[in-house]
Amino acid sequence: MAWDEWEQMKSDAAERQSARMRLNRLDGGPGASAADLVVNRDDLGAVGHEAFLLHGRLSKDGHHARPATFTAANALTHANFTSGAQLMSVHDQWNSQVRTLLDACARISDHLDYSVSAHANDDADIGGDLLAVSKIDGYFT
Predict the structure, then answer these.
(1) Distance of CA 122 to CAs 23, 31, 92, 118, 119, Å?
(2) Is residue 20 part of a domain?
């Protein structure tokens, strides 16, 4: 390697160091530009909390009519009314839809908890990688 190549590599390393990549910050603080995608943990927490509250209310309020509907469907069926089978079908479909909504609320809440944790781990890994790179760049200056 010639001396001028070495000098050029040192110069390139110095330029890279001065134009370092800025990381997206979750709190939108220094280092985040207007073009950065920023999601605040408070925002995720609020959505997760609302999903949790909706799950609680739906698990209680979504079943108010279930016992009465079931009883009426059985009574109509035993009295030889064809509407009894249809009412039981409505009962079963309603229960299926409530379970689907409960599952969706639980998934939203769980996914947001997982996302916050996963992104925090990713940020720590990237920060560690950048720290290692910055130490290596220090040898070129």
Answers:
(1) 12, 17, 44, 6, 5
(2) no
